[in-house]
Amino acid sequence: MLQAILVGKSATPYYTCPMVTTAKITGMASAHCVRAVFTALGGVPGISAADVSLGTAVIDHDGTVTRAAIAEAVAIVGYKVASTSDSRRSLPVV
């Protein structure tokens, strides 16, 4: 679903679309680490789902979430985002 938000001085509509960000996370070693990162990501506005495993998080969001917001949430619980990659959510092939 596209959502229009207003940005800039001219209040031009900017349309967001569902995105998927994959983050490589360093320092994770146990199930506790996975839970901590999952919980931290759940507190970021705009994130709708996160699939977290050791060293990786695949994050579904509305397109307004920045890489910096993801890195900050992960850093709060004691880990570091080594790299991220973004892709648009694609429609399933039926």
Measured as a percent range, the helix fraction is 10-25%
CATH topology assignment: Alpha-Beta Plaits
Structural class by helix and strand composition: alpha+beta
Mean of residue pLDDT?
85
Q: In terms of per-residue confidence, which ranges show pLDDT below 50 for 5 or more consecutive residues?
A: none
CATH class: Alpha Beta
How are the strands of the largest sheet arranged? 4-5-3-6
Tally of separate helices: 2
Task: Give the strand tally.
Answer: 6
- Report the sheet with the most strands, covering strand number, pairing sense and barrel closure: 4 strands, antiparallel
* CA gyration radius, whole angstroms: 14 Å
Q: Beta-strand level of the residues, as a percent range?
A: 35-45%
Shape field: globular
* CA-CA gap between termini: 19 Å
Order of helices and strands: EEEHEEHE
Count of structural domains: 1
Summarize the model shown.
The protein has about 90 residues and is of the alpha+beta class. About 25% of the residues lie in helices and about 45% in strands.
Please describe what this structure looks like:
The longest helix has 12 residues, at 31-42. The protein has one domain (18-88): Alpha-Beta Plaits. 23% of the residues lie in helices and 43% in strands. The protein is built from two helices and six strands, in the order E-E-E-H-E-E-H-E. The strands form two sheets. Strands 4-5-3-6 form a four-stranded antiparallel sheet. Strands 1-2 form a two-stranded antiparallel sheet. With 94 residues, the protein is an alpha+beta fold.
